[in-house]
User: Fold these one by one.
Assistant:
Number 1:
Amino acid sequence: MHTRRIGDVEVSAIGLGAMPMSIEGRPDEARSLATLHAALDAGVTLIDTADAYHRDAHEVGHNETLIAKALASHDRGKDVLVATKGGHLRPGDGSWTLDGSPRYLKEACEASLRRLGVEAIGLYQFHRPDPKVPYAESVGAIRDLLDEGKIRMAGISNADPQQIRQAQEILGGRLVSVQNQFSPAFRSSEPELELCDGLGIAFLPWSPLGGISRASELGSAYAPFARVADAHGVSPQRVCLAWMLAKSPVVVPIPGASRPETILDSLAAADLELSSEELAQLDAV
């Protein structure tokens, strides 16, 4: 498995986004655990989750609990960096709400610590800016958690360039990651990717294949990805992840999966080398 870095931690070049195993349309627990174990067997050492990755109101943290169970039952579980998030909520009616208050973020972190069964969270990320709370106050809570040793590394998600710079300042230069949406269908985070490249901060594209409902359509929606995939005899999804990896050494995609074969295909992207001509074709989409 090829590796990259998040802060001072070496992780697999491609991580696993675990959200599909806990929200609407999720598989049964046995298949989810099989998917997580297949990823671990293949060398994945980065798993992304959040307390809000659940379906029903009474099961906050479903995804974190699932991951903790998978790691505890695998001999490589201790080698994994678990990245979780706080600041997003799901009332249970399918909607998403926000709470970026320092009080809530600190309570959410404590709850995540209990569910994951760890003394300190490897990477804790502020999930999404809350317009009702000054951004500096939210990130200040993340800084406090870092100073207190409740989390080992700090990141932010769904941030713009100004917020990245502000977070880096508030955290005293200790911001290690930015997790933003980025895919062939969603290219507006390229300025954030370029900023992270310049600052040496890991950039974690979420929904890198276009999201749960659209990932299977990537090749039909974007012809260049299908053409390059045909030339290499691989899936368009594998080409997509290889294209992202080629953009910068700070990029660490976290494709979602709920089946072993899906994450295994994604992981193979780290071994796929694309020519400069092919990359130019994909960039032009």
Number 2:
Amino acid sequence: MTVDTTARTYMITGPEPELWYRDLISCLQATFGSLLARAGADPLEVLGAGWRFLHLPGDVRSEEFYYPCPPGESEGADLGAALAPHHELHSRWWQPADENDVWREVRETLADDRLVIAAVDNFHLPFRPAYGDVHAAHLVVIYGLDETRGVVYVSDAMPPAFRGAVPIEEFLKSWGSANPTDVQDAFFSDSRIGRRCLDVRLDAPPAPLTPELLGGYLRTDVEAFTTAGSARTGLAGYDEFAGELLDRCRASDAGALRELYPFGWGMQAQASLHGELLRRCGHRWNDPALAGAGRAVEAVAHAWTGLRFTGAHGLADPRAASTDIARHATLLRGAYARAVDAVGAAAARL
């Protein structure tokens, strides 16, 4: 850790954060991946180990990093536990306690040689394509602070990808933005940033991934997909979600499509990572059935694209879009069913 308290400079030791990225993930998985890599864990093995469907009516927020957290599993929104249900990954949201010294907790975290995930508004970040144009809620990693030079060091793996210094004045605008409603982004604006940050901790090193361990993960996840619960989970939960989505579209409720885009991104990202992990393990362990199950789960991720983008383009007239929404929802349901069967068959062999 490089600390010069006279110059008020705080930088993590070692290399800069890894820009961990996959095509179908959002800033949520990308930032957590960077922190996991720094902790010495394989981000794909942690973030790709679990796979589930969960929809919480009324919970969806207009933020790129929205992700449903299972009710009753922990106090507050533990995104770490939701993203990695098979690992000791945990997180908590916090905001500066002292309005007169908003950097205090950031300094303390960096002095402990840990990274900070901060919520921001892309409108105020010079390196984002939306700079000065579009308001949108986003996450970045803070890995250094130099108050003498007036810069904060930020890492952002989402394209176009950036690591480097941002003027503190600009960052504070982004970190404290009201993120007002923006007609150019109906999905990630209108959500106050409020200088929120995530404290993320990996409480135990992940165990080496073996066929036996992965088999246990898969059996747990398949059970969740095929067993009805109190919340909208699994295939039954998807059916409830899709039915309500279609009903709301037919009733010209644009809110249904505004929620579909951020909600679907979380489900899509998780399926993408899970599928990639199964493919990688199938190749490594010479198990074609496991690799095939991975491809089936990845097909779920790609089927989400059709539903999400149809919803985005149908925002102005949900009722007119309802026929296409129904078709894509049916295709996605079929992909889920095939993937659950394939994962169950692979799990039985592990």
Number 3:
Amino acid sequence: MTMTNAGGRRRPPTIHDVAREAGVSRGTVSRVLNGGHYVSPAAQEAVNAAIRRTGYVVNRHARSLITGRSDSIGFLLTEPQERFFEDPNFNVLLRGCTQALAAHDIPLLLMLAGTEDERRRITRYITAGHVDGVLLVSSHSGDPVAEQLREAGVPLVACGKPIGMGSKVSYVAADDRDGARDMVKHLVSLGRRRIGMVTGPLDTPGGVERLAGYREVLAEAGIEADDRLIASGDYSRASGEAGTEQLLERAPDMDAVFVASDLMAQGALTALHKAGRRVPEDVSVGGFDDSTAAISATPALTTIRQPYDRISTEMVRVLLAQIGGEEPAAVILPTELVRRDST
């Protein structure tokens, strides 16, 4: 249906056009647009059909003046910009959250805050009411953003349990410790006994939990812990390579290495190749995430699959529930061992 003004030019349909097309009052249309409360099923269907026929689009600015909401959500990544483009996991999460919110007709705003100044500016922007809630990705201990947003009353859901915040903040996480346990058990089952690890950042929940799972399985298998077999990484490819080089120097008899992300594991493969070590004949390599980095590696990586589709969906569900008035919630999702050619 085409709407024209007095000059014959096309104009966008209005709520009045929808009401006239549906044969209901403007107030009924407004109630349908704001959740359908106190509207009969017949009237709701008539309004929805009229919206489809007229092509009416909600004026979000006008609605925000009435509801006090922005009708948008922030996706906040507290990492340097280059990490967003290097690490495939962030893109998968962003795409999943965007799709989950699209079902509710809510746009997602990407916010990158890798420096202290950027975090300060983004926090001011968020607390000024420009978004209704925040999906927080890659929170580090000591990073004040989560606490500042919580204190300001901003609905917030973190990807991974924020260290030191207990039940104060909603979060959705894969079971990092159990995933790490599955990987190290797999390496032990292959007869490996000098198993190294390149950890994630130990100021993040994933870094802490994956290291804990590694240590637990070694202890259960009666394998003596050796700090020379542990190197720190930051989830970047370069840190995986550097960490593996350190392990080879300190423990040249290493026969397996668990690397806390697939991207770092690609770096580990590079270091092993440079050192003349065959994978998996001399050294078995296990990653974590089951990202595109695992499939594109040579050889393809045995890894731990994180259910990113479910993580994205649950983060959006929990955040929308919190915006609707529910209390903070925690969701922990299972991981899965995926065997490929590197072990």
Number 4:
Amino acid sequence: MAQPKYEGYCECTPTKLIREKFGDVNVFAQNAKSLLTKATGFIGDYDFTLNPYRGCQYGCSYCYAAAFTPNAQMRQDWGKWVIFKENAAEILAKELKKWYEKNPKIPPSIYMSSVTDPYQPLESKHQLTRRLLDVMLDVSIDGYPTPTLVIQTRSPIITRDIDYLQRFKRLRINMSIPTGSELVRKDFEPRSPSIKARLNAITKIKQSIDYFKGFLPKISITITPLLPTLATDEAAFIDKIAIADRVVIQAFHPSQSCSLMASTRQEAEEIKQKYAWWWMRN
């Protein structure tokens, strides 16, 4: 089957037109054939990954997910386009039904998301992730256990869904905060939320859930990849991330010249040179 041709990213007649503009981002809509993908690699302990969107508005310079784009031009424009999967909720409902028919007492473990941010700015309008949470919670109506869920994000928008999040018995929220210095964040991920906004979001989640009405999720701070934190910010950052019950630290992915392989982008490699002194010291 021929691959979709996206408007602005092909020389021929496009098969996928720009549905809307969200800031400077081109937004395409597309129906998904499947939503739950078998988890592999460093998240292979989970049953599935789930990505409501393809592409990410945050467009972080180091993001390995850019390698999995439809074509080289879209890879170059990482952060300037997003594809949202219009039928995601319907597909997830069907796939979960199929899982529970085979495993009625075993909840699937789902990692959301591996190559996008489920709470990127577009989510505030389309509420795709919220609809997926609704589908996962609905399985309890039929007597099935709610999926075990990990949400990976860097977005304060997640606080909008506290009413849903507290209904998951097995939930971990991974908040990505690769650096404790705003100057460094602005160099490597200028389109992403501030460090303060992310920490405030975690605090709000922990303070807003009533122990008598819901379940408090486990909280991780993921320093992935490990970016420099300037000496003037280091002590305060260490103190603030103590709010989490786990801190995950991971180095950059190796740089690869080929696509379809997790890889640190050249853009980040160039920015790293500015902070070469930090990596040498540490």
